[in-house]
Amino acid sequence: MGNESATANLSRISTLVVSSLSHIPNRLKTSKNFAAFSGDISGRAAARLLHDSRLDIPQEPPKGLISDMLRSRLTPLTREKGLNSEDVIQEIRKAIVPYNVALIKHAVRLKKALERIQHIRNEMVPHLKADSVRELSQVLEARSMSIIVELILKASLVREESRGYHFREDFPYTDNEHWLKLIVLRRGDDGQVVVRSQPVETPFIKPVESKSLPPGTRKPR
């Protein structure tokens, strides 16, 4: 197997999987419970990907892979000029934190926030600099935040319904007929995000209604 093929396979296995995390309560997203919950989902999804694809995983990493990864992560320490990680993290927060993006969602606002995050990831993150190991950890945090926020926004756009803390102003009903599903995102062979849905099995308790208003919401006029 060539290095290119092996690297691609390893990249697919290590890809970040986000499964319907966009509707998890915000108060849980900063908790250890959420870390364990999301980690379990991602781990199981990675295991299924490995099993289903039957990838030929090399026993040893491809030559140069580890050094390339280290170089990528340590490059900010070598830059004399660049952007400050705290400023970039603040820009990410400005895009995702407003209530009409994080809580009361609409396709127009989600797309605008997504465009902003993609600009940050493509135009700002590659120019981050660090003067110490501590600052380097913040650079890596900003890089990870830009990736995760982009995935959350894409999942929120795909889920055209309201469920739990995921409320779509343009799709105010919970739609059990079409959206009783997990949303799974992964990196494709071309490096682009691939989105798919996975039905949720309900062997014991099934939804009473195919469509309903989430608790605490008013019927749209």
How does this structure look, described?
It contains eight helices and seven strands. It is flat. It has a single domain (3-212), classed as FAD/NAD(P)-binding domain (3-Layer(bba) Sandwich). With 221 residues, it is mainly alpha-helical. 48% of the residues lie in helices and 11% in strands.
Backbone shape = flat
Note the total helix count.
8
Strand order of the largest sheet: 1-5-6
Distance between the termini: 60 Å
Q: How much helix, percentage-wise, in residues?
A: 40-55%
Name the assembly state: single chain
Poorly predicted runs of 5 or more residues: 13-25
According to CATH, the homologous superfamily is FAD/NAD(P)-binding domain
Q: Tell me about the largest β-sheet.
A: 3 strands, antiparallel
What would you say the CATH architecture is? 3-Layer(bba) Sandwich
As a whole number of angstroms, the C-alpha radius of gyration is 20 Å
Could you say what the CATH topology is called?
Answer: FAD/NAD(P)-binding domain
Q: From the helix content, strand content and strand pairing, which structural class follows?
A: mainly alpha
Chain-averaged pLDDT? 82
How many beta-strand runs?
Answer: 7
H/E element string?
Answer: HEHHHHEHHEEHEEE
% residues in beta strands: 5-15%
Number of domains: 1
Per CATH, the class reads Alpha Beta
